[in-house]
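Re: How this chain folds, sequence and tokenised backbone to follow
Notation: Tokens come from a learned vocabulary of local backbone shapes, not from coordinates.
Start of record: The labelled sequence and token lines come straight after this line.
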Amino acid sequence: MGRCAMSLASSCQANILGFLDDNLLTPKEIDGLPYMGPIEEFRQLSVKHAGLRPLIAVGDTRSRLLVFGRLLAATPDLQLASAIDTSVTRVGPSHVDSGCIIFPGVVIGAGVRLGRSVVINANVTIGAGSVIKDFSTVGPGANIGSEAAIGRCTFVGMGAAIAQGIAVGEDCTIGALSFVRQNIPDGYLAAGIPAVLKGPRIR
């Protein structure tokens, strides 16, 4: 996801310094942007570059939360960058917290609230009054019905649909192309049409 997020940030006219990654096999450059070292380097970089804000471009929801925690521990006054494509449509007032990555073709209904570091992939529709909590990811083409609630660190798969007023718990996975018409408790995998519980989310 990192490369897609960097491309989106560039299209939003962001001034990108480079990228951080703990993976020792990370190339020294990706798409012309330099590798700046492991995540812990952010503290020193933020001292050198006033106003520097990280964009956490990590696909896995729990990993994104862990990276945020490490950055926050090193930099208590941490401010996250966001990347929101210019084609995103907001139908009335909505709230998008810091650190969100929102790809092209997304429609956000009136009264929607997106938490910190939420990732909304391309061509997603989020119905009016819905809430998607911190560090969750919604896959391409998914449809979140109005007044739905998605818990923290939950992953909604590509093309899935969440019915109006449904609550999906924290740390859940909703399978691709599933139709969810019942509430899903914390920590579960649900899939199918209609979606049924398949057991605890595998991590």
Notes: The chain has a mean pLDDT of 93. The first helix runs from residue 2 to 11. The chain is about 15% helix and 25% strand.
